[in-house]
Specification:
By secondary structure, this protein is α/β, with parallel strands linked by helices. It has a single domain (2-126), classed as Rossmann fold. The protein has helices spanning 7-15, 22-29, 39-50, 59-69, 79-87, 95-107, 116-119, and strands at residues 2-5, 34-38, 73-75, 110-112, 125-126. The protein has a five-stranded parallel beta sheet. Helix 3 packs antiparallel against helix 4 (59-69) and helix 5 packs across helix 6 (95-107).
C-alpha cells in the first residue's frame, strides 16, 4: 500500500508519540508499504517551527533527516497536484491538508491521518 503521512502522523512517528496507534506504527514499519511525506508537510513544519508552535529535535533539519533515515519518499508538489486542489469541495480550508488530499487522490495513496476533516473527503485514509 502507498501511504502518505499527514504532518502530525510523521511528527508523532518520529517522536514515538503514544497518540499514534500501534496499528499505524505497524503500517509505517511494514516493508510492503511505501511511505511518503509531502513537501507540503515540510513547509507546514517550517512555518510551525518558525512561529514556535512546534518543536522538533534539531529543528527543520532534524525533521528532514528523520524522513531520510526512515527511507520515506519525499513527494514533491507538481502542477497537477495544485490544479487538483481546485476540484476539491470546500470542506477544509487548511491548504496543507487540501494538498495532501489532492496528492493522495492523484497518486492512489491512502492518507494516514487522525484529522476528521480530511476523512470527510473522498480519499482513502488509514489510522
Amino acid at each position: 500500500m502507498n501511504i502518505l503521512l499527514d504532518t502530525h502522523a510523521a511528527i508523532w512517528f518520529f517522536g514515538g508519540d503514544k497518540r499514534l496507534p500501534q496499528s499505524a506504527v505497524d503500517a509505517i514499519c511494514n516493508l510492503d508499504n511505501m511511505i511518503y511525506v509531502s513537501i507540503a508537510s515540510l513547509w507546514e513544519v517550517a512555518i510551525k517551527l518558525g512561529i514556535d508552535k512546534l518543536t522538533f529535535d534539531d529543528g527543520f533539519d532534524g525533521f528532514v533527516d528523520a524522513i531520510h533515515k526512515n527511507e520515506f519518499v519525499l513527494l514533491y508538489v507538481e502542477p497537477e497536484h495544485i490544479k487538483e486542489t481546485m476540484n476539491l469541495p470546500h470542506i477544509h480550508r487548511d491548504p496543507f491538508d487540501r494538498m495532501l488530499v489532492a496528492q493522495a487522490n492523484l497518486g492512489d495513496m491512502a492518507i494516514m491521518t487522525f484529522d476528521i476533516n480530511i476523512m470527510k473527503y473522498d480519499v482513502k485514509t488509514v489510522w
